[in-house]
Amino acid sequence: MVPKESGSTLMKAIIFAGGVGTRLWPLSRKKSPKQFEKIVGNKSTLQLSAHRLLPDFSWKDIYVSTGKTYVKTVQEQLPVIPPRNVIGEPDMRDVGPAVGLITSLLVTESPMEPMVILWSDHLVKNESLFRKILKAANDEVATNPDRIIFVSQKPRFASENLGWIEYGKERAKRADIPFYGFVDFQYRPDVGTAKRYFESGHHAWNLGYFVTTPQFLWKQYARFAPNLYSSLKQIQSAWKTGTFDAVLQEVYPKLEKIHFDNAILEKLNPSQALVISENIGWSDIGAWEALKEALQETDGKNVTQGKVLLTDTSDSLIYNYTNQMAVTIDLEGFLVVNTGDVLLVCRKSSVGKIKKLVESMQGTENEYLT
User: Fold this and answer.
1) Cα(207)–Cα(216) distance, integer angstroms
2) In what order do the strands lie in the sheet with 317-320?
3) Would you report the helix, strand and coil content of the chain in percent, each value rounded to 5?
4) Are strands 273-278 and 148-153 parallel, antiparallel or unpaired?
5) Residue 43 carries which DSSP code?
6) Is 205 buried (19+), middle (13-18) or exposed (0-12) by CB count in 10 A?
7) Distance CA 356, CA 352 (A)
8) HSE on the CB side for 307, CA within 13 Å?
9) Quick one: CA torsion of 144, 150, 155, 159, rounded to 10 degrees?
10) Is the pTM of the predicted complex or chain greater than 0.70?
11) Residue 237: CA atoms inside 13 Å, Cβ hemisphere, count?
12) Which domains does the chain have, with CATH numbers?
């Protein structure tokens, strides 16, 4: 059943759905990355990311940036989004070029209309608060278009695996949502530093979500990444013409591979940035242990999907995508994932080895499983 067009338009929303996600192997693979798989309930995380924007967003104002290989998959999963709103990158050049590409296109259509950058492989439990935050950020940027607002998650624990954002004093408030001054970014701190951040009251998890105007962001590309800006302008000039696909195919694969943080964010004037830190129930479910933490009812509870039968099993994740019954006995702290052609069994503490295992399969007889 195709959802109805939502009744209101908040701003432009861009959902990034690139990457393979090897930490969720064997479910996530090159041919079908994690964002297209049913990891939570009966929708993919891409579908969840789009549907949580409703009813505040119009389908015609939702864009998806993905790899060229996955354009058809995106259109099948989100058929209500206009085909022209699905941007297929011909080559993965990291986040800097990806964000620059969509910015270069939107600045030609609605340079002053706020836009929000989102990611397709996250879980947000408090969707109503999330939409309230976006509305407040939209109103702030609409009033003050030369700024960027970072949307962050109040930390639930001292994570070493996530990026953090430091904020200062409250500088504004809209609809009971406070906006804080931006101080700095920190990336994957050590144990002691993460604990200090968690206890400080002035640090939050950095989600990679932000609200700004295309014009403001496009100016930052011109200032801080002139070579990237120049090449993107070539693609921009072909937008809405019959040569767009050809120009994109020609120019984009030659762009410098650089992360958005390194290209733009680290060089921004802090006075032009604000931070929202709220508990939206956010989780990065890019790895099995993170998925378990996000879905478990309480610490140590099992998380299951599919046909499973558990006996004396605790603190484990059992995902079964086959018609067979998966039975576990006397397991504690394990991951069991059965996709039919691969059965993964490992301790939660060993999840960091999954990516290395997948990389080691390249060039072998098992590469087809990656």
Assistant:
1) 20
2) 303-305, 317-320, 334-338, 343-347
3) 35, 25, 35
4) parallel
5) B
6) buried
7) 8
8) 8
9) -160
10) yes
11) 8
12) 12-284 (3.90.550.10), 288-351 (no CATH)
Residues 104/233, Cβ–Cβ less than 8 Å: yes
8 A C-beta contact, residue 302 and residue 314? yes
| Residue 197, token pair as written in the block | 């951040």
Nearest by Cα to 60 from 110, 119, 132, 131? 110
Sequence letter at residue 183 = V
How many helices (H) and strands (E) the chain has is answered by: 11, 17
Please give the chain's pLDDT, 370 residues, in tens.
Answer: 444 444 456 799 999 998 777 888 999 888 888 899 888 878 899 999 999 999 999 999 999 999 999 999 999 999 999 999 999 999 989 999 999 999 999 999 999 999 999 999 899 999 999 999 999 999 999 999 999 999 999 999 998 888 999 999 999 999 999 999 999 999 888 989 999 999 999 999 999 999 999 999 999 999 999 999 999 999 999 998 899 999 999 999 999 999 999 999 999 999 999 999 999 999 988 788 888 988 898 888 999 999 999 999 999 999 999 999 999 999 999 999 999 999 999 998 888 899 899 999 999 999 999 9
- Token pair for 117: 């950058």
Report the phi/psi class of residue 275: left, alpha or beta, with left for phi > 0 and alpha for psi in -120 to 50.
beta
User: Contact, 352 vs 290, CB < 8 A?
Assistant: no
